[in-house]
């Protein structure tokens, strides 16, 4: 059974794309199977804002034809000889990263997500020259370091979006000490932001949600946010702000957010806008008087992913999702672009595998 899987996915093709969201099912060549690899038959894949930025070429020219998707859950069908702790039949996930050098200082410090030679799950290039293809597809091969066992208590449809959206906000919350006695602000309540509210509450922090969308108000209360703010500035109140915004308009004052930070507070952006969308201007006066910091965070490590899954398991945390078959991918992508999603679309497998 192990060698019969056909690699096919919903791809943006190499012919000049008429429309970024018009995908068609194509067969493609997977990476060469290596002794550390796990081959996974995909059952679910979440739709991330990164997929939209990549398909619209907002982060630069993409390597077409390309299958995107990096919130993957499926069943293991084959493991290489070096693979430990994962076996055929296991339910596992893969997130936004699928490779790293394994021996630099970052990789050896459980910071493989910061490896300078990290390979993204799609639109990257493996050492054998094959372009990495994502999870709107039948199957994926991944090095065991980037394959995460899913606890039995978490359903696949719930685990999928934890692989990127969940982990991307879990990592900075953990790193910067979200917990009892801390006040955490979350800017932008979409796929990532809704996870930031859920995790920060589960970690015991007091949560301030910032949104411009009053229609999300009731949802955000149900997610557990303690305070919902639209524009009332909070002076020197917060220990940490996680910004999930991936569009910065020049009227959005970064200074307003920085002024909300308590001494040594941190503003951490996890959103990555298009290449031409720079951060709003600021001045040293916004940092020095409270000793605050401005920084960023890139997905998370395997260690953090396993911790996050354990938190979701033990606190029974479920994301807010909408499921649809993979053939509805166009609707999902456009829903993300137009901010219609509440709060993550999860595509379920429907490609005939023969
Ligand atoms: Zn993502
Ligand atoms: Zn490395």
UniProtKB/TrEMBL annotation:
The similarity annotation says: Belongs to the zinc-containing alcohol dehydrogenase family.
Cofactor names: Zn(2+)
- What UniProt keywords are attached to this protein's entry? Metal-binding, Oxidoreductase, Zinc
UniProt-listed InterPro entries: ADH-like_C, ADH-like_N, ADH_Zn_CS, CAD-like, D-isomer_DH_CS1, ER, GroES-like_sf, NAD(P)-bd_dom_sf
Q: Is ATP-binding given among the entry's keywords?
A: no
Would you tell me the protein name for this molecule? Answer: Enoyl reductase (ER) domain-containing protein
RNA-binding listed as a keyword: no
Q: Which residues form a coiled coil?
A: none
What Pfam families does the entry give? ADH_N, ADH_zinc_N
**Gene Ontology MF: a single term:** oxidoreductase activity, acting on the CH-OH group of donors, NAD or NADP as acceptor
Q: Which residues form the Enoyl reductase (ER) domain?
A: 21-347
What PANTHER family does its record include?
ALDEHYDE REDUCTASE
């Amino acid at each position: 059974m192990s060698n019969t899987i056909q690699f096919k996915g919903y791809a943006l093709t190499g012919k000049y794309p008429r429309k970024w969201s018009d995908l068609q099912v194509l067969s493609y060549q997977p990476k060469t199977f290596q002794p550390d690899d796990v081959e996974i038959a995909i059952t679910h894949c979440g739709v991330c804002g990164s997929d939209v930025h990549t398909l619209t070429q907002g982060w630069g020219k993409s390597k077409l034809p390309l299958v995107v998707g990096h919130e993957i859950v499926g069943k293991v069908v084959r493991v290489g000889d070096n693979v430990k702790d994962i076996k055929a039949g296991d339910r596992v996930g893969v997130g936004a990263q699928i490779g790293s050098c394994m021996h630099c200082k970052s990789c050896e410090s459980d910071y493989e997500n910061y490896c300078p030679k990290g390979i993204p799950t799609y639109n990257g290039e493996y050492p054998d020259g094959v372009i990495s293809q994502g999870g709107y597809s039948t199957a994926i091969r991944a090095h065991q370091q980037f394959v995460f066992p899913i606890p039995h208590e978490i359903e696949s449809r719930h685990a999928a979006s934890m692989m990127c959206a969940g982990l991307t906000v879990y990592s900075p919350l953990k790193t910067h000490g979200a917990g009892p006695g801390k006040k955490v602000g979350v800017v932008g309540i979409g796929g990532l932001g809704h996870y930031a509210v859920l995790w920060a509450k589960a970690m015991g922090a007091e949560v301030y949600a910032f949104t411009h969308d009053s229609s999300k108000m009731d949802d955000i209360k149900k997610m557990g946010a303690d305070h919902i703010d639209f524009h009332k500035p909070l002076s020197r109140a917060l220990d940490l702000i996680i910004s999930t915004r991936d569009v910065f308009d020049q009227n959005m004052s970064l200074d307003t957010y920085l002024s909300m930070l308590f001494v040594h507070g941190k503003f951490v952006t996890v959103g990555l806008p298009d290449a031409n969308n720079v951060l709003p201007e600021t001045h040293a006066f916004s940092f020095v008087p409270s000793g605050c910091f401005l920084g960023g965070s890139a997905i998370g490590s395997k260690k953090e992913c396993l911790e996050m899954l354990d938190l979701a398991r033990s606190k029974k945390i479920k994301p807010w999702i909408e499921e649809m078959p993979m053939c509805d991918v166009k609707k999902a992508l456009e829903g993300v672009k137009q901010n219609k999603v509440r709060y993550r679309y999860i595509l379920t497998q429907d490609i005939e595998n023969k």
